[in-house]
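User: Fold this; tokens only.

Assistant: Input:
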Amino acid sequence: MSNSNLPLEQLSSILQAFISDKAGDKIKEIQASLLSSLHQNPALVLQCLASLLRSHELPALRKAASVFLRSFAMQSPESDESPKMYWSLIDDQARSFCHEQLLGSLKDEAETSVRKSVNETIAYLTAQLIQDGGSWDELLYVLFECTKSLSAPHRESAFRIISSLPDILGNHDHTVIKQIFMTGLSDGVVAVRVSCLEALISYYTDLEKASIRQNFNDAILLGLDGVPSLITGETEEQLRDAVACFIELGDKSPAVFKHILPKTVDVILAIMTSNVLEHDTQELALEVLLSIAENKPAIVRKYPRFVQALLPVLLEWMTDLDDEQDWYTTEDPEEEDTNEKFDAATTALDRLALSLGGNALLGEAFQLIPTLLGDAQWQRRHAGLFAISVLGEGCHDLIELELDKVVKLVSNYFTDAHPRVRYAACNTIGQMSTDFAPKIEKEYHELIMTSLIQVMDDMSFPRVQAHAAAAVINFAEEAEKETIKPYLDTLFARLVKLLQGKKYVQQQTITTIAAVVDSAKETSTKYYDSIMPILIEILVNATAPEFALLRGKTIECASSLALAVGKDKFIPHAADIIELFRQTQVAIGEDTSNPQSTYLLASWARICQVLKKDFVPYLNIVVPALVRSAELKAEATILDDVEDLNEDNWDSFYYEGQRVGIPTAVLEEKSTAIHMLVIYARELAEDFAPYAERVLDICIPMLSFVYSDSVKQAASLSIAPLFTSLIKAGYPVDKIGVFWQKVAVKILDTLAAGMDYEEELDGDVQLFGTFYDCLEVLGDGCLTVELMDKFVEAVNKSIGVYFQHIDSRSEQRSEADHDNEDEEDLKRDEENDSFILDEVFRSVARVFKVQKASFIPGFEKVFANVNALVSSKPADVAYQTAGLHLVVNIFCSIVQYLGPQSWNYHHLFLERMVNGMSHPSTDIRHCSALGIGLCAQYGGEAFFPVCTSALPNLFNMISSTPTPVAPEHVLSVENALSSIAKVYQFALVAPGTAPNSSVNPSDVLSRWLEIYLTMPIVDDQEEAKYISNFLGDLLEANNPIVLGANNSNIPRLMKAYAEVIANETLDGLDQDENKVIQTFKIMAGQVAPDVAQTIWTSFTPEKQAVLQRKIN
């Protein structure tokens, strides 16, 4: 189509108006006019734009034409009939004309900004063309020619397009492509070399076959060799671009660094230690090493110099602190600008510890840290303490072995001469209190608490005082109330004194009080009368806007204190507190930006937990605000378009190649609001029913919320309590059924669609929990055939992903670089997957419970799927183990809920279950032992011979387990012990049971009792509940074997019962726990005082405190 047929002058005039300085408010009007023309005749407008970008005399207009061509080509017709873009819809002739103009511009354009825009337009349009199955053969030819051009800008343009569009190289001769890259990397112009490096990395990381990638490894090395020449002040921008290439390589293809790691470390450290570069560039270089360590830690661990060379540089960065007066005088530490090098180094050290582990890092670190701690400069002592702080989580196991030395080492610096070192000591102990809980709280509480309380007396340095109070929070959150109780008098005295300090000290102190009372619980009652009036005084008097955060924290503290001390103690102040909360709620209205808003959401819920039904009159005050927060729109923003971006304020993810973010505050407020609504529904049940329908309408869509796991989890937790509320309130069954249909379809469709091999299984595990909780609430027959089919689809999908994860782990184990630390990571992944699969099993069990035999067709589909997966790799041990685990677990449910009818399927599982008791896998031994007990308890007489013949295996499972029993074996031992009791009760001595000539019931009971008295069941609550009833019945019947000759077993029985009570095994099962406690008291009255004292002293002080509390 010739240019004479295009309305170039008209379009040119419009674009000139657009780029004019006088365009101003008319820009939107001009854009609307252009869009209107586009929709009327897209081919014509796109061709006009292409012609203008090629030939107009004004560079600014050519650039505008390029931008509009790219934008308009990606537009879709106004009609919704076709989702395709105009670039895909225009005819070939029009598209060819545009191609011709773009290629001409690519070869001839001299203006840098225009050329970059044209490059982007070509890349965008070609990507769309390839996506639609098309091609642009001429472009590749022109790009190859441009790489040889005498014009450096054109060589650069060619590589930039390849970088954006590596697919265009397709299956072209790799030798030719490699030579083009090698030539470009040796170019005499820096910009060309860097753009070539970007193109190489983009192409390399896009290649699927490792064998092909290997051909380009020497090109990667050549690119790396060119980086040191960029370490000058004049080429820093190009250096950053080059470094970014190696970050991408570390993220996407880290294996390549196996061959070039020494060179990479040298180059990066040269950048990090340069005196002529900006810190941002040095931090970017650090990211290269971190990306390698996180994505391919094994090759780093095999090259010790990586840590040996990097660690001193990071520690040196951590000393880059100035003793500025602002640090001491600030009124708001949160707003203080922290040091960039210090922050970057501490974050990096944390990431290295998490990725490499203690074996690779800790030895080298503690060669350097003691020297820092002994240095006369406070900055170096400060750095040494912070290094210990950030190493704790990643090097946990090794540091824990030396915890005594480390805690005492850090504690020495609570009395350091410099306040900022004392601050660092508080910070380190606070972090360690989290990382090494509960061991550090149990063993070092006296040293830590007395030291922190002493630092709170540091009146000359309020910021140090506040940080000591902050460290107490970390300690209190992990400490048992018996542990913290001895320090409460002194601690609360200091905290009350701190309330007289600066505003930020007051805020921190109030937060600390809230954490301490939450840990101390009812022990806080002693201090209530001295604290609550102060909190009320703050709420009454601190009404100015600048006190909003202080008020918010005070609201939180008052509600936490009320919850800790309980209703009776709180009642005298309840009316005043509620009125103050109400006034605050009214004052802030719908202003969710007010910090009091979020604190109120949670605090109202705590008051509800205290007052129970007495809180109902206040629901009309609190629920509307919660609903507003729960309904907040999570609007996504393209983060690259945000100026002065603060990463901490956004939750980000990638969508269609762009980084998108949602304000963190919005997501946190939504999550908090929904969690609070859950509390109201649980606490008030039928009294919350007037609001339940509205909340369900909010939460059901959130079950598939993709932007935030916390919001999705909160919505998941809400569903069952809301159904309970409606059912207890007598809500019409048909309306509940409508809601249930929506919920079930949403859950099951999300599960079936959401799980992917690339994703973690735990992303949707909460939905399985929600599903089976709802089944428990709604009861028998609540699933239609359609819903059962959807459930089977979801189960099979999760099982399929589980097996794919097995394949992935097998591949990783076969890699040459796989080491012990990698294996530990994979075992953690296995444990996580097993936990998630347990949630699937619980769902299957619950479906059998409510649907009984009607779920048999669904079970058969699941069984067939498992068999097919297992049969696909008959020699794969991991597959066979996983399949056996699945089968035995599913049949445990069948036996429990189908009873004697389950015998119809015994040929599918019973032999596997019996053999499973001697399987190497702890999980399989556990569920096999459980299954034998269930067969005896629920299966009926047909199962009895198998159950009794399994007794030797059950006893052997216990006797062959080394003592003390390791945590991973506890459940299998406890289930074996419980199943022996069930076989005895139901298959050997139950009324009407045929005598078994080969098994003496008395011998079984005697042998079982001897084991139980040495290792009572204290971990598995369900089995502990059964055993407490089993033993209780035998004791009531005065069973001579249980009591022993002359009641000789009473002391040992008393000790076993005490173990169950002290371990709080039956916590939450009040009726069962009370029976155990009453039996314990009876036995305590039957033994001599010295015997009772011996039993008492055999327990730790913590368990003695629990026993005392429970018994009294």
